[in-house]
Specification:
about 300 residues; 12 helices; mainly alpha
């Protein structure tokens, strides 16, 4: 299998898994969002650490930690990133189990545009006129939701900005994705373990106390975190960045369909108009990005 095909298949399966994950969280709706995110942190750390050791990258992991500590800016940036991705996970889990799946899909549709804006603000990146237009159209879509529903889309924007800032921080740190997940979850692990001890002491932990299916699903939160991340890393290494950007819309599209057709969440005319603005923004933005990529390639 050539590297491009390998990259396309890996990226596709990564985003399909991310798209299906709301169904997984729905199986745990009898467990509090706090315990689910705690399990996800603990088991992501354990299972990813086992994987890293199994592929004989244990020494590389120790070297990563040592290098990070020598570069304090990178170290504390990764600490901040670990808390941001944990917040992102928590918002998503809470939203799914409180019937806001459709709004989570909007968050991940908006995320690439938020990432671009953060790049302009913090990295002094420049936007083409078409990309500026795409951001304005997306903003109009969010405005439609605010006006029609009379409330701010906290879930969508919380997901978009937490992941966008997380990506901004990670962009400035050179670190293998899999080993990076071990270190990120290590930073948040003490809080997660402390909270689990608290739950166990109060007799409120679902782990090992409800049924074996629930316990198995809680342990599995580490698996469904690690596997798509590893697949994504393989994909990103073997296909162009703009193609990765195209594939990232698979997950929110699946999430939108799952929320609307499987869990029958509301999707009225105002929602359609808002999403229509965002879809149009994505088309304009993607076209502009591809054109810019081709121009850069021709100039190289």
């Amino acid at each position: 299998m050539d590297s491009t095909k390998k990259g396309i298949l890996s990226a596709t399966f990564a985003y399909i898994m991310w798209g299906l994950v709301p169904i997984y969280w729905k199986q745990l709706d009898m467990v509090s969002s706090n315990e689910i995110i705690t399990s996800r942190i603990v088991w992501s750390f354990i299972l990813t650490l086992i994987f890293v050791v199994a592929i004989r990258q244990g020494k590389d992991l120790l070297q990563d930690v040592q290098t990070l500590w020598q570069h304090q800016k990178s170290f504390w940036s990764l600490v901040a990133a670990s808390y941001l991705i944990s917040a992102n996970w928590y918002i998503f889990i809470w939203a799914v189990n409180h019937n806001h799946i459709v709004e989570t899909s909007m968050g991940y549709y908006i995320n690439p545009l938020v990432s671009v804006l953060l790049g302009v603000i913090f990295l002094k990146e420049r936007l083409s006129k078409a990309q500026v237009l795409a951001c304005i159209i997306a903003f109009a879509g969010v405005a439609v939701l605010v006006i029609s529903n009379g409330k701010f889309p906290f879930v969508a924007l919380g997901l978009a900005f937490s992941f966008g800032i997380y990506g901004l921080l990670k962009k400035q740190i050179k670190l293998d994705a899999t080993r990076g997940l071990v270190i990120e979850t290590l930073f948040i692990l003490p809080l997660a373990l402390g909270y689990y001890i608290y739950l166990i002491a109060k007799g409120e932990s679902a782990m090992f106390h409800l049924d074996w299916v629930t316990t198995f699903l809680l342990i599995g939160t580490g698996v469904i975190t690690a596997i798509p991340l590893i697949l994504f890393a393989v994909g990103a290494q073997n296909i162009p960045l703009y193609l990765v950007g195209f594939f990232q819309y698979i997950a929110p599209t699946m999430t939108l369909l799952i929320g609307t057709f499987i869990y029958h969440e509301k999707f009225g005319l105002h929602d359609f108009i808002a999403f229509g603005c965002i879809w149009l923004a994505i088309i304009v933005f993607s076209y502009a990005t591809i054109v810019e990529a081709k121009k850069s390639k021709n100039l190289a």
